[in-house]
């Protein structure tokens, strides 16, 4: 077994394994398979040891990996989120499929002191630091396709949903970081999950303080207010 061979390079397996109390990994079949998964194979090895039946192995599915699967399900099953992410990926592809566009994008970003980052797979908060640079580029580009993308991404509902999702992912990433911290034990997982769900429910009723949705709504109010004043004049 690869794990055993790796351990043997630094310490004797027979002296280490009897002291192992638990296993933690992601939930792939390679690890958690009922017949030949690593969990099952190590459990069988434990049974063969002296007093092995009295000291069972505790198998733990990594909470962060499992929560990533939950977010992946949201991205796949919630139509609005799925469409938004696909459109974001298409926009990133449009920018990066051309070397000229990529150079122009970086030039516009540099001139406006903005950052350009790769679009992460799970629509992480980092996307928020790229979208402004991309929109600035689309605004200055003479390309007809750029104008189509710009109009699509400047729609109020699209921007509002994007900002809400960025706040949700920010809360989610903090939740995952909490799960990885030394201050959380397996016994605390349910409590931490309930705290996160409460914060997420609160975000539905009121924008996250200092978040993107709060900034978006305050900016929209300013724009609408200025528009009303200009009409009155």
Largest β-sheet summary: 2 strands, parallel
Rg for CA atoms = 25 Å
Number of domains: 2
Report the uncertain regions.
122-127
Using the alpha-carbon principal axes, give the shape. Answer: elongated
The number of E-state strands comes to 2
How much strand content do the residues show? under 5%
**Distance, first to last CA:** 79 Å
State the strand order across the main sheet.
Answer: 1-2
Which structural class should the secondary elements be placed in? mainly alpha
Number of helices: 12
Give average pLDDT, whole number.
82
How much helix, percentage-wise, in residues? 55-70%
What is the chain-wise order of helices and strands?
Answer: HHEHHEHHHHHHHH
What does this molecule look like?
The chain has a two-stranded parallel ribbon with strand order 1-2. The chain folds into two domains: 2-61, no CATH class; 65-229, no CATH class. Helix 7 packs across helix 8 (128-140), helix 8 (128-140) packs across helix 9 (144-153) and helix 10 (156-180) packs antiparallel against helix 12. The radius of gyration is 25 Å and the shape is elongated. It has helices spanning 2-8, 13-16, 29-32, 38-48, 63-77, 79-96, 99-111, 128-140, 144-153, 156-180, 189-205, 212-232; strands at residues 22-25, 58-61. Helix content is 68%, strand content 3%. By secondary structure, the protein is mostly helical.
């Amino acid at each position: 077994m690869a794990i055993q061979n790796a351990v043997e390079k630094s310490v004797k397996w027979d002296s280490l394994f009897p002291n192992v109390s638990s296993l933690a990994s992601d939930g792939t079949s390679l690890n958690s398979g009922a017949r030949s998964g690593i969990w099952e194979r190590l459990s069988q090895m434990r049974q063969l040891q002296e007093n092995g039946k009295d000291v069972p192995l505790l198998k733990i599915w990594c909470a962060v990996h499992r929560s990533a699967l939950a977010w992946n399900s949201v991205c796949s099953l919630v139509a609005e989120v799925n469409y938004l992410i696909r459109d974001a990926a298409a926009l990133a592809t449009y920018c990066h499929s051309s070397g000229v566009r990529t150079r122009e994008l970086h030039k516009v970003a540099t001139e406006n002191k903005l950052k350009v980052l790769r679009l992460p797979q799970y629509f992480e908060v980092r996307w928020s630091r790229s979208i402004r640079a991309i929109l600035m580029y689309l605004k200055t580009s003479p390309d007809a396709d750029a104008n189509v993308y710009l109009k699509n991404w400047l729609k109020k509902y699209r921007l509002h949903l994007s900002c809400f999702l960025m706040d949700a992912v920010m809360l989610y990433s903090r939740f995952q970081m909490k799960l990885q911290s030394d201050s959380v034990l397996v016994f605390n997982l349910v409590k931490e999950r309930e705290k996160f769900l409460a914060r997420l429910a609160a975000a539905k009723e009121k924008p996250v303080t200092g978040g993107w949705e709060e900034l978006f709504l305050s900016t929209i109010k300013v724009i609408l207010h200025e528009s009303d004043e200009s009409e009155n004049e």
